[in-house]
TrEMBL record:
This is Alanine acetyltransferase. Residues 1-164 form the N-acetyltransferase domain. Pfam families: Acetyltransf_3. It comes from the Bacteria.
């Protein structure tokens, strides 16, 4: 909860930058209460082994610059999670997203004992595709009209990485 204000600051400053890649959000999302609620949901998800949310911090000064999450965790024969992430625009292109994705994959396999991590990206989001490729994800296909982003059903490229 101590990071709620920093997350809110990132969300507010990057609202226009993030919007083409996110669902349309209610105004409550851009309030401290909204961010505290998201954190509470994340904590509950971790307690139920359904999702794990992590802050992305700079080593040099512990500044919060983004978030990465493993969600929709399926156990049993699947052992899969979906990954999503965002980085403050002023830190884009500096390797932080790639490092965060790589570290999150390591946690997924070594600590959470997952077998597969999947990420979906709109084909025009070339920087995010490059992040996944650099982190070792393979392209598996195209999901047509997969997610409703910024008010429109968007195709997404599906990427995945497995423990082996």
């Amino acid at each position: 909860m101590k990071d709620a204000e920093a997350i809110l600051d990132i969300k507010r400053r990057n609202r226009d930058f993030f919007q083409p890649f996110e669902p349309i959000r209610d105004e409550s999302h851009f309030t401290l209460e909204g961010q505290e609620n998201e954190i509470a949901i994340g904590i509950q998800g971790a307690q139920n082994d359904q999702s794990y949310f992590f802050g992305i911090f700079l080593k040099k000064n512990d500044e919060l610059v983004g978030r990465i999450a493993l969600t929709g965790i399926a156990r049993g024969v699947f052992q899969n999670a979906f990954m999503g992430y965002y980085i403050d625009q002023k830190y884009n292109g500096k390797g932080y997203a790639t490092a965060a994705v790589s570290l999150c994959v390591e946690i997924a396999f070594s600590e959470l004992n997952l077998h597969r991590v999947e990420a979906s990206v709109m084909p025009r989001n070339l920087p995010s595709i490059r992040v996944l490729e650099k982190a070792g994800f393979r392209h598996e296909g195209l999901a047509k009209t997969y997610l409703k982003i910024n008010g429109a059903w968007e195709d997404h490229k599906i990427f995945a990485i497995t423990a082996e």
